[in-house]
Design brief:
Blueprint: H1 2-9, E1 41-44, H2 64-69, H3 75-93, E2 96-99, H4 115-123, E3 146-147, H5 151-158, H6 173-181, H7 183-191, H8 201-217, E4 224-225, H9 227-234, H10 237-247, H11 255-276, E5 279-294, E6 300-314, E7 317-324, E8 331-332, H12 344-364, E9 369-376, E10 390-393, H13 401-411, E11 417-420, H14 425-442, E12 449-450, H15 455-459, H16 464-467
Parallel strand pairs: 1-2, 7-9, 8-10
Antiparallel strand pairs: 3-12, 4-5, 5-6, 6-7, 10-11
Iron/sulfur cluster (SF4) is lined by residues 182, 184-185, 188, 451-452, 457-458, 461, 463-464, 467, 469.
């Protein structure tokens, strides 16, 4: 708010905005990042409590109070200390200092002045003059963003098409999910490749879990796995976790806790494998790539790819396995729903497995049944833990006893019945049709990359600042 107010006031000014001249001009900088420069006139904006210093959150497995009691580093305290240091340092040599705070209607903070400013009014020897201003800010409409598919954008899309020299890139299930969630997000992420790295503890746990499972099983790809082998693998868990953590390039926020959590989850995973043995391991981290022909005025082939966590065969049934460490839904009402942008938030994991199963079948055919096998790691220790994918059945549809038990578990609130998909083949034709429809839309030059209407998706989007939806 004050930024707009200040810049508005400076519109008529002849002040220079030099980038290359460090001596004169206006600098707009973070208080904590003033590069140890001294300024004659300093304007501190948004000095509301809750905003200056800014409240920061850091996801952690460790409860905040526990960290505080044991003197462990806390992200919010580090941010507070940096702001306080920057503030007091800038006060030292400035001739004029203006501090602004708003008494009401502030977006992030409270209607109170920052504690840093309040303290100055008590114990500093500075000559403080307090004045009140009223500001009437006009509402600025945020312009909607829609990227038209002109020649340059179509060229970016071209990299996914099959050509004589081969495609440069391929569309993954994540790319399709991104498009269904928000076409503009897909444009930013997969065409402009504006990537953002997130390394929360949840993400670290997921990556390390996948890594250790691959390290354990990779040497046995193509072999029959029996209970003896699984028990041998169990004895290697600690060593493999240590090696996976050592190979992790960025520092882990809570390595001991992650180690203990991984040990417990991997131990449970191998217990489940022990119960399922014997099975033939067909591969781990299996990369697959296949093209799909799109009908239309111009026939085009689009490259699709994905990496499957694990593929094994058990009693003439090939299991396409995907470990999910995050929250995931394993039941759908219909195949058509997988392509519904309004439902993709809850159907991501199922969409991904259908995509993998489609890749597997189109590359290897299918003499055996193909079972999509979602392993929800968060539910390992729940009484109703049930891996797999479930599809809604008509109310009067037949259900076997074993499936009915599962259906009761999932459907107890909605009253709906779900059946586990034991062979995905009968569902792959409608899935392929839906997939083609989605791809035709992505490559349709008359349909722009528009923003989603679902603001909840924006809440987790790394491009939220660009769209001004934060
Ligand atoms: S912020 Fe929202 S509208 Fe913008 S790209 Fe992300 S999801 Fe789409």
């Amino acid at each position: 708010m004050f930024g707009a107010f200040l810049l508005n006031g400076l519109k008529e000014s002849r002040m220079l905005f030099h980038q290359d001249n460090p001596v004169t001009g206006l600098y707009i900088i973070e208080v904590a990042e003033s590069y140890n420069l001294d300024f004659e006139h300093v304007f501190f904006l948004d000095m509301n409590e809750g905003c200056f210093p800014k409240v920061t959150h850091h996801d952690s497995f460790l409860p905040y109070d526990l960290c505080h009691s044991f003197g462990l580093p806390l992200a919010d305290k580090v941010a507070e200390n940096k702001t306080a240091y920057g503030f007091y340092r800038l006060l030292q040599r400035a001739q004029n200092i203006c501090c602004y705070f708003s008494q009401k209607g502030h977006l992030d903070g409270s209607g109170e002045m920052s504690r840093l400013l309040l303290q100055l009014t008590f114990d500093s020897k500075l000559k403080i003059i307090e004045t009140h201003h009223s500001i009437n800010l006009l509402e600025r409409p945020v312009a909607a963003i829609a990227i038209q598919k002109d020649d340059s954008v179509m060229q970016l899309l071209d990299r996914f098409l099959e050509k004589e020299e081969g495609a440069v890139s391929s569309l993954t299930p994540s790319a399709c999910i991104s498009y269904l969630s928000c076409p503009l997000q897909f444009y930013f992420k997969y065409l402009l490749q504006l990537r953002q790295t997130v390394a929360t503890e949840d993400v670290q746990l997921g990556i390390l879990f996948h890594d250790v499972m691959a390290r354990l099983y990779r040497p046995f790809a193509g072999s029959q796995i029996d209970t003896n082998m699984v028990r041998q693998l169990q004895s290697k868990i600690k060593v493999e976790i240590a090696e996976a953590i050592a190979a992790w390039r960025t520092p882990l926020s809570a390595p001991m806790l992650l180690h203990a959590l991984l040990e417990k989850l991997l131990g449970r995973m191998l217990d489940l494998d022990d119960a399922a043995a014997p099975f033939t391991l067909l591969g781990v981290e299996v990369a697959m790539k296949q093209s799909i022909m799109l009908d239309g005025e111009i026939a085009r082939k689009v490259w699709l790819s994905g990496t499957i966590d694990r593929i094994d065969r058990q009693n003439h049934c090939v299991r396409i396995i995907d470990y999910k460490t995050g929250r995931s839904n394993c039941k759908i009402s219909s195949i058509v729903n997988l392509f519904d942008p309004g439902k993709i938030k809850t159907n991501k994991a199922v969409f991904q497995l259908f995509f993998y199963a489609w890749l597997f079948q189109s590359l290897h055919g299918a003499d055996n049944a193909i079972m999509p096998y979602l392993i929800p790691i968060r539910e390992f220790f729940l009484a109703h833990y049930t891996p797999g994918i479930f599809i809604q059945q008509p109310d009067n549809g037949p259900l076997s006893k074993a499936i009915y038990d599962v259906a009761i578990e999932f459907g107890k609130r909605s009253g709906k019945k779900y059946q586990q998909i034991e062979d995905i083949k009968e569902y792959l034709q409608p899935f392929e049709e839906g997939l083609k429809g989605l791809l035709v839309e992505i490559f349709n030059p008359t349909i722009p990359f528009a923003q989603t209407e679902d603001l909840e998706i924006c809440g987790y989007c790394p491009y939220v600042r660009i769209c001004q939806r934060d």
